[in-house]
Amino acid sequence: MSESNILEISGLTVEFRSGGRWITAIRDVDLTLAPRQCLGIVGESGSGKSVTALSILRLHPAKSTRIASGRILYQGRDLLAVAPGELARIRGSEIAMIFQDPMSSLNPVLTIGEQIGETLRIHQGLNRADALAKAVGLLDMVRIPDARRRVAEYPHRLSGGMRQRVMIAMAIACRPKILIADEPTTALDVTVQAQILNLLRDLREELGMSVILISHDMGVISEFTDKIAVMYAGQVVEQAVGDGLFDAPMHPYTSGLLRAIPNIDRDVDRLATIPGSIPDAARMVPGCRFHPRCPEALESCRSEAPAMIDLGGLRQTRCPPRAERQGMIGGRS
Ligand SMILES: Nc1ncnc2c1ncn2[C@@H]1O[C@H](COP(=O)(O)OP(=O)(O)OP(=O)(O)O)[C@@H](O)[C@H]1O
Ligand SMILES: [Mg+2]
């Protein structure tokens, strides 16, 4: 494991049982996360973003899921190999996760303070009074106004944005080193979305956390992350740091996602979408998984599964520029 990474996922392949057989949901996923970095994972619905994130804390339904291969090194230890008790400790206290729908994760019959307090009592052994006092401080940190009063309220009294702030307060209660946010703002309107993403950015700096931000929205990813992995049909197809992906996208799928970003200067009615849809995991296409939708596909793309090519400087792609591809396959197509 490289000293410079807090998390390293390598060769991760996850399968689900469906109709008596095992279906591969993600295959050979490699990702790294550096301290204080915000890694963005982007891709259309069904591309494998959540399966990848849930694997880190082994939150999949145990009976119908198997991790067929791979390692998830957290500070040098393989999370796939740690005992359940140790994993439960890491979950929440060192690696925390927030999801799209805060209401389904909040308990409707407990006050906000009781719920945040519960996390603190379990993980930090605080008594009820101390936990409640700390909960007020956490609500302040996530910028919920009038925290002292709000701490006694029930979740249904709060707006969607406020509920997501409560979830973030619970997630950061034990000062985790990594926060995984899976579509944290997808259910919120655009202004609230920006407030929550700004809050996550500020907290990352204040607490020195690393963040994995998952979104299908390339606009969100471009603004809030400093390294980006593009997923398609269960695989990472391209990766870059900084603006590398936007300045010079290499994979035609990435280019398609970029064309679909709404732009003030562009007529929204004419927003480009990528024709077709992601292949079904149970009937994965041979060759490059994107070839049926790819405007640049060569004959070889139908049969030869492209390997990830490392271009140095944390730049990787499964599809080098066309000229190089034609050179690489020796003019066979
Ligand atoms: N528990 C499960 N059982 C069976 N298949 C699953 C399960 N969870 C996910 N899958 C399959 O794994 C693939 C990847 O799903 P995943 O939820 O990771 O996509 P996603 O990129 O998070 O999409 P979205 O943007 O809709 O959240 C899909 O084909 C999905 O149907
Ligand atoms: Mg998802």
Residue fraction in strands: 15-25%
Query: Can you name the CATH architecture of the largest domain?
Result: 3-Layer(aba) Sandwich
Whole-number total of structural domains: 2
CATH topology of the largest domain: Rossmann fold
Mean pLDDT: 91
What is the CATH domain class of the largest domain? Alpha Beta
User: Which distinct ligands sit in these coordinates?
Assistant: adenosine-5'-triphosphate, magnesium ion
- Number of continuous helical runs: 12
Radius of gyration: 21 Å
Give the tally of β-strands: 12
Strand order of the largest sheet: 6-7-8-3-9-10-12-11
Helix content: 25-40%
Fourth-tier CATH superfamily name of the largest domain: P-loop containing nucleotide triphosphate hydrolases
- List SSEs in N-to-C order: EEEHEEHEHHHHHEHEHEEHHEEH
Let me know the largest β-sheet.
8 strands, mixed
Q: Ranges with pLDDT <50 over ≥5 residues?
A: 329-333
Give the class from helix and strand content and strand pairing: alpha/beta
Shape: globular
How would you characterize the overall build of this protein?
The protein is α/β, with parallel strands linked by helices. The protein folds into two domains: 7-94 and 174-328, Rossmann fold (3-Layer(aba) Sandwich), CATH 3.40.50; 101-173. It contains twelve helices and twelve strands. It has helices spanning 49-56, 84-93, 102-105, 112-124, 128-141, 147-150, 160-172, 190-207, 218-224, 244-247, 252-259, 322-328, and strands at residues 7-18, 21-33, 38-42, 65-74, 77-78, 95-98, 178-182, 210-215, 227-232, 235-241, 309-310, 316-317. The chain has an eight-stranded mixed β-sheet with strand order 6-7-8-3-9-10-12-11, sandwiched between helices. A four-stranded antiparallel β-sheet has the order 2-1-4-5, covered by helices on one side. Helix 5 packs across helix 7 and helix 7 (160-172) runs parallel beside helix 8 (190-207). It is globular and about 70 Å long. Mean pLDDT is 91; it is low at 329-333. Residues 16, 18, 25, 43, 45-51, 61, 64, 216, 281 line the site of adenosine-5'-triphosphate.
